[in-house]
Amino acid sequence: MPTLLNTNGFKFFFYANEHEPKHIHVVYGEFFAKIELKTLRVVQNYLKPKDLKFALNIVKENQEKFERRWDEWFA
After folding, report:
1. What are the tens digits of pLDDT across the range 39-56?
2. Are 58 and 7 in contact (CB under 8 A)?
3. According to the model, what pLDDT value does residue 1 have?
4. Do the beta carbons of residue 16 and residue 1 sit within 8 Å?
């Protein structure tokens, strides 16, 4: 399970056996979300609204880096 970033208690990662479309899992405490990388569409969410907003901003800021890591991992 490649971890891409840990910040402010949020963990951003994907699983080693993922599937398309490219997406990131975000865990914060006992809550989590799943966000598509290309569109930033929230596929699944159990985060509080302010935490989801924070997570989306982090994914947006690191979108290219996260996609590059995905491509490297699954190449």
Report:
1. 999 999 999 999 999 999
2. yes
3. 83
4. yes
> What is the per-residue pLDDT for 27?
98
- Identify the H or E element spanning 25: strand 23-28
Matching residue, tokens 């996609």: 67
DSSP designation for 11? E
32 contacts 26 by C-beta, under 8 angstroms: yes
Give the CA diameter of the chain: 35
Which amino acid belongs to residue 54? F
pLDDT of residue 23: 97
Which residue type occupies 62? N
